[in-house]
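Note to self: the last two entries modelled the partners one at a time, which told us nothing about the interface. This time every component goes in together.
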Amino acid sequence: MNKYVIRNVLLLLFLPLIPVQHVFARNLTGEEIIKKMEANQVQKSARLEGVFIITDKFGERKKTFKLVSLGTDRTLLEFTNPEEAGQKILRAGDEIYLYFPEAEDVIHLKGSALRDSVLGSDFSYEDLTGEKGLLDIYDVEAEGMETVNGRECYTLKLTAKNRKAVYPGEKLWVDSELFVLRKAYYYALSGRLIKEMEIRKVIKVKGKNIPVWFVMEDRMKKDSRTTFIINNIQIDVPVDPGIFSLEELSW
Amino acid sequence: MKLYRIALRNIKRNKRRSILSGTAIVIAAFTIVFMFSLEGGMMQDMRNNIFHYITGNIRIRNSAYTEYESLNPLNLRIKNYRSVIEKCRAYSNVLAVSPRIRFYTSIYRNDKDYRGIGLGLDFNLEKDFQNFGENLVKGRLPAPGKREIILSSGLAKEMGVGTGDKITMLSRNMYMGMSGMTFKITGIVRFKVESFNKSFFYMPIDTAQRFLKMDNSATEILLLLKDVSRLKETVSGIKKLLADSGQPLEVVPWTSIGTWYSIIRMADVMYQIIALIFFILGSTVIINTTMMVIYERMREIGTMSAMGMTGSEIVGLFFLESFFISLISALTGVILGVGIILPLTVTGLDLSAYMQGINFDISTVLHPQLDMRSTVLVFFYAVAVSSFASFIPSRRAARIEPVEALRAL
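The predicted structure of the combined assembly is written out below.
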């Protein structure tokens, strides 16, 4: 499910933070905290530009992109850096399609291919899928309060209800004031930590709090880290639904 | 009468016994010659396959590539590979060079994905390594610069594609990003080594460079040498030649690459043990037969002794009988072995029906190697074993009193 979190976060999910109400939610249940956090993530539409900065044993690489989203289930990402210019990733619900300018077919990613890394980053395609809410996939337990980068956060323990979840377990740190995700751990069935994500920057757009700087580390890779930065974002702008079709993708 | 005449007469007198005794020696000598040749062929075949398909006699790579090989690090490449090739060619002991780009892909066809191992090759230079001309079972080689590929027969079968079909594949490119491209299949190749017919496909090196965004680069360059015994000296010479190439390159002899050399050495020891077992089995058959033939002639020995033949004459007689039989039989066995092996060294022994699914770098058509030294050794060995095997029973028999020997069954 963390895929859900990552998707929303990564794909801008503009965790718009509803006008911060001073909800002194210290006595909120885990479910209530999740609901408040997810309420912040719903955007009608968004356009943004950003960059993946991938750091590993071979050095640092930057992959720039622009992205358009509509609702929670349609996202079109197009890479703009010279090496991958024109490559597109279309997410429609749980389905992922890839377009390459020199390929005659649009690739429908399925099965184990979804676990492949996106451009060698610490994000997998699987991280981008999923449109269900966290509460549909996980049982949530509020564990307490902790401080992350100077922000007071609720700590939540999530346990997958079934084996369909991308990550069988998660631990989330949710900002107690803004109700945005600040940090997340993703675990394998064995309890081993697989990935770790931290949100380093949140900005306010149209009165909503939106995370724009994420750092993801895949613990299965040695010396690997991906920073995802949104440089320019517009929310609730007009978007043509037609651009999310397979026909448009290969144009 | 001279002993050798009596011996020859005894051999002729009981032809059935002589033929049975000789046949054991023929079979033993033939089997040993055949097995030695087959094992020699297997070892040679394995070496050839490793040299031509995998390592060359010498392999050149970016010095950091091997450490990260499992990550398919196309960024750790040999830049300006053509100039490296030209320098290598200038070295007198270099027979052939082949630049290669090795990469891993996901291949998509009809909504299914398959895993493939790609090699970008210069098909002209590759002639001395993997012989595509001889192994192309359908279609033609891809044209340089075109988005064309040839598939190994196993991969084509797995995907259900043939010449003229198109497939789309994804691979990590030199910038660690993803590249996708659609290729037309122009041919199907089937190598004699079954393990190379599974996941491999091949494309022109310039097409691979475009696909993987590798400009004028290769991941490795393989060298074949005119004189492999000068391997160390050539490695040093090539290293000196490439020292001013402006990039970190490793020049490695095949004996230091991975586990290939260890595998060869292990296989060599294994085959020698198997050969030794056959040798022992063959010797046992010869010794058994010779001793039994003498023991069953106790009464005859008693008669000869009673007629005044001395013990040493009896031992000499049986030694000569065994010697004559083994001489003829060993020669027949060796000639039979050579006669069968010689044509097989040219036509090969087709084992494809028995090697389906075997993931080992031995060709499905084996060419036995006749080693004259071991063949001659087998001949003399068979004669010696058989002749000396007669000593034990005949010496024992010669010591027995004639009356006792005559009572023997």
